[in-house]
Design goal:
The complex is a heterodimer of chains A (60) and B (159). Helices cover 13% and strands 35% of the residues of chain A. By secondary structure, chain A is mainly beta. Chain A has one domain. By secondary structure, chain B is mostly beta strands. Chain B is built from 2 helices and 15 strands. In chain B, a hairpin with a 5-residue loop joins strand 8 and strand 9. Chain B is globular. The chains are: A mainly beta (60), B mainly beta (159). At the A-B interface, strand 1, helix 1 and strand 4 of A face strand 2, strand 3, strand 5 and helix 1 of B.
Chain lengths: 60, 159
């Protein structure tokens, strides 16, 4: 998995947490803890963990 | 406390079906479904652990900050059962825990001072990080420009 993304524009499996390093998705999982832990392996200032929000859901 | 002005575009998401890895299609147009959400760059940490850069969904309908249990576990937060349940979108009441965490808002060298916050952790479900009203909407004037898919956060100053 190495699709390029920007901070304002993401593509990924719905509901998954994804680890993005230098604009590349390096991993995804439903388990946020697993992805937060994986992010420790990468330089902090080049890594973000974000969520692919459900496209048809509302949050309250 | 140092707070910074922010202006962000909504995040555009094209979600894939986790099974097929193909885009989820709009039932009306047959094209990949695009959605836009106001998300704010944050870092959440505890006295024991600092999380990676992540994002929270700005949610004026939420009373406070909500994080999923899996992130609370990662941060090794001390969770205390709350006497007040959390009412979720489908009308159910869900048991929740509360804890204290540190929230940093910002990215690309523009950061606010860390804010000590109460976080709610639902006992079930896997929500995104929700940035509700307390305390972020008390510290900032938040303006959603829905027509332009962007939002602004200006530090609140009493007039």
């Amino acid at each position: 998995m190495s699709k390029s993304i920007t901070i304002d524009d993401i593509t990924g499996p719905e509901g998954h947490w994804i680890v993005v390093v230098k604009g590349k998705v390096v991993a995804s999982s439903e388990d946020a803890k697993k992805m937060f832990k994986l992010a420790e392996k990468y330089p902090r200032d080049e890594t973000i963990v974000t969520r692919v929000l459900f496209p048809q859901a509302s949050f309250f | 406390m140092r707070l910074v002005d922010f202006r962000f575009n909504y995040k555009r998401t094209v979600a894939l079906n986790p099974g097929t890895r193909k885009p989820i299609l709009d039932a009306d147009t047959g094209k990949p479904l695009e959605v836009y959400h106001p998300v704010v760059p944050i870092t959440v940490s505890s006295p024991r652990k600092k999380g990676p850069a992540t994002e929270g969904l700005l949610d004026s309908g939420s009373d406070g900050i909500v994080i999923p249990r899996s992130i609370a576990d990662y941060l090794e937060l001390d969770l205390k059962p709350s006497g007040r349940p959390m009412r979720i979108a489908d009308g159910r009441n869900v048991k929740r825990f509360v804890s204290r965490a540190t929230l940093e808002i910002g990215r690309a060298g523009r950061y606010c001072d860390p804010i000590e916050v109460e976080v709610s952790v639902p006992a079930e479900g896997n929500p995104p990080i929700l940035i509700g009203r307390a305390p972020v909407f008390e510290l900032f004037v938040v303006t959603f420009v829905e027509a332009e898919k962007r939002f602004e956060m200006r530090p609140y100053r009493k007039s």
